[in-house]
Amino acid sequence: MKKIIFATKNMDKMKEIRAKLPDYNVVSMEEAGIDIDVDENGLTFEENAVIKAEAIMKLCGEVVVADDSGLEIDYLNKAPGVLSARFLGHDTSYDYKNAKILEMLNGVPDEKRTARFVCAMAVASPHGKTQVVRGTIEGIIGHSADGSNGFGYDPIFYVPELGKTTAQLSMEEKNKISHRGKALDMVRRILNEDTCIE
Ligand code: ITT
């Protein structure tokens, strides 16, 4: 089985990633014995994904995939965006963050509640040029936090076509349509066709 290191400390992301790449040995940073905080100081999801993947690849000399993702809310000028993890404080609970967003959008009609999850994924290899892809899913910010699957902003991200939030989907259902699922489909193609893994 081909090995890749996934440069994330977010175990919820890891679960989604492993489910989508069953034919790869996906090793977490912790399992690889890597414990550093990479400064995500890029201005875009793509820049941050590349920064993370290349920093870890240079440390371990292996193929590394990194995910930088977040929620863009149009009514809030695309905030929290690249700051999604840091929005209202890195250690603040998502129950609180989600309640605060619902409050900020109180009274805003559905047509102005448009939002999207974005996921940039970078593949960095010691044998080739870094590649980066982007997956997105469009939705609206709901009027309440619903569902207990997933993580982060899932309970307030409502997908009108399904009549559910992404926190009301199973991991398999979410992975079929989500930003991360789409990015992972593209990454799998890069990993399969590429010479980046020996
Ligand atoms: P790593 O940097 O270690 O990968 P992180 O959680 O800090 O972990 P990001 O910097 O990419 O990851 O921040 C992304 C944040 O955006 C994440 O913490 C969630 O709050 C939110 N987010 C991203 N994808 C999401 C999803 O599928 N469902 C809900 N929230 C999501």
Topology as H/E string? EHEHEEHEEEEHH
The major β-sheet equals:
8 strands, mixed
CATH architecture: Alpha-Beta Complex
Question: What name does the CATH topology carry?
Answer: Maf protein
Total count of domains: 1
Low-confidence stretches: none
Number of helices: 5
CATH class: Alpha Beta
Q: How would you classify the helix and strand content by structural class?
A: alpha+beta
The coarse silhouette is globular
Distance between the termini: 11 Å
* Bound ligands, each once: inosine 5'-triphosphate
How much helix, percentage-wise, in residues? Answer: 25-40%
Count of beta strands? 8
Beta-strand percent range: 25-35%
Instruction: Report the mean per-residue pLDDT as an integer.
Output: 95
Rg, Å, rounded = 17 Å
Index terms:
single chain; binds inosine 5'-triphosphate; 5 helices; Maf protein; globular; alpha+beta; eight-stranded mixed β-sheet; 8 strands; 198 residues
Overview of this protein structure:
- The chain is of the alpha+beta class.
- The chain has one domain: Maf protein (Alpha-Beta Complex), CATH 3.90.950.
- The protein contains 5 helices and 8 strands; from the N terminus they run E-H-E-H-E-E-H-E-E-E-E-H-H.
- Strands 1, 2, 3, 4, 5, 6, 7 and 8 form an 8-stranded mixed beta sheet that branches.
- Helix 1 (11-20) packs across helix 5 and helix 4 (171-177) packs across helix 5.
- Bound molecules: inosine 5'-triphosphate (ITT).
- Inosine 5'-triphosphate (ITT) binds at residues 8-10, 13, 40, 67-71, 84-85, 117, 150-154, 178, 180.
